[in-house]
Amino acid sequence: MTKTKAKKPHYVNNKDFLQAMIEWNDRCKVAKENGDSQPPITNYIGECFLKIANHLSYRPNFINYTYREEMISDGIENCLQYVHNFNPEKSNNPFAYFTQIIYYAFLRRIQKEKKQSHVKNKIIENMNVDMFLVQEQEGNVVNNPYTEYL
């Protein structure tokens, strides 16, 4: 007997997402022709960005980072920066386009955090231990009471 898995609905419907992007692009073209500024994205498009970023952050290669929220924020920020670059005439898959943007935003955040962690470790490594053992109070050198307690 074979068991069939019930298909879960996708968390982002690509057809609806594409339609929303087409409508937003049309509004952008009209605003550009009228000399207006770019219109804000719709709530649905923003929700799609958020869902894509959240679900991508649960992949095994991203799940255990303590700065997952920053990764998600960076991904959404990059989507908002480059939303105008999506061309529905070239591609009919906005889900894949924005997933790639978020994926690379995650990788950039990981690299930044690794660099920051390396700098922090180097500072701690080069720190003088006497700084923690001896303190100055009102011009007098006093041993740290906590280190004496230990």
Describe this protein's structure.
With 150 residues, this protein is mainly α. It has one domain (14-149). The protein has 6 helices and 2 strands, in the order H-H-H-H-H-E-E-H. Helix 3 (68-82) crosses helix 4 (94-126). It is elongated and about 75 Å long. The relative contact order is 0.10.
What is shown here, in short?
The chain has one domain (14-149).
Give the helices and strands, then pairings.
Blueprint: H1 14-34, H2 43-57, H3 68-82, H4 94-126, H5 130-133, E1 134-137, E2 140-143, H6 145-149
Antiparallel strand pairs: 1-2
Task: Supply database-style keywords.
150 residues; mainly alpha; 2 strands
Mean pLDDT: 86
Structure class: mainly alpha
Unreliable segments of 5+ consecutive residues: none
What distance separates the N and C termini? 66 Å
Oligomer: single chain
**Would you report the number of β strands?**
2
